[in-house]
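Onboarding guide, step 5: your first structure request.
Type a short instruction followed by the sequence, for example:

Predict the 3D structure of this protein.
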Amino acid sequence: MGKIFVDACLGKETPYTPVWMMRQAGRYLPEYREVRAQAGNFLNLCHDPQKACEVTLQPVDILDVDAAILFSDILVVPNEMGMKLDFVVGEGPVFESPIKTQADLDALAGGEEAAGKLTYVYETIKLIKAQLAQDKALIGFTGAPWTLATYMIEGQGTKTYNICKKMMYSQPELLHRILAKVTEVVKLYMEKQIQAGVDVVQIFDSWAAAIEPAKYDEFSWQYMVQIADYLKAKYPHIPIIMFPKGIPAFLDNVYGNFDVFGVDWSTPMALAKEKLGKRYVLQGNMEPCRLYSQEATKECVASLANTMKEGRHIFNLGHGILPDVPVKNAKYFVKLCQELSKRA
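The system replies with structure tokens like these:
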């Protein structure tokens, strides 16, 4: 079950600091591109347990990271709630009918009905666990309710979030009802991932920085904490990673029953250590673009190792790996982290 990685997440002493990279499967791997081509499109790949298992395991075999992250997409949740989803070339994910009214929300499935439709994800997890080496952990994940809601309301990715934020300030009750419904689905979705075999779960709030600090707890963090509380009450042995991207101004207000705080690349690790290091294991936070240069990678890894030498830390990127990163540089990062983190 990847005991070293799980123990590190729980803050226990381990022989070395584990390393993994967010979005491990992706276009930077030729092996991934081959399987993606076979699948026809991205959503087909997510829906095919055999292929999703294969691309989950590829970076573990190629890079020798200490944990695999489940291959899927955060938007399978609203998709199975009843929102028609397409991945459009050049545009990304697009929902045919975004949520605009209470009636739109009422038309969507919730709770067990929606979570129960994600059987292909649970089957993928079972296949991965049957093939994953015993010393490697499997990380399951979900998007945070706020991040999911932005897509559900905007209908696609956005740089301004103006439709979501218009609802936040002019119809806050409707936005809270959307967030609450999504939260109930996510609770059960993560529980079913645990039951299927994941060793660790991570909640991604990719669009956390879209909310002003004064509103962040109300419209995002409290819902993430509700999910963590639900899971910890039933599965206290399963580590929970919280990853809100781009909120260094919120660090003083972080609270909740979880184990690991993911530090994005825009947040100084020394600051995160000062504010949160005594309460949580820290994960991160190399700027992913450093992977274009081995010298830049070496500089950052050495700095992280020095900053966290007396802290609890898991090496990771500060966000997802980019598609044109040389594979040899990704391998270099992992090997370097492993060499520097071994303890005498």
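Each response can be followed by summary notes, for example: The CA atoms of residues 229 and 257 lie 6 Å apart.
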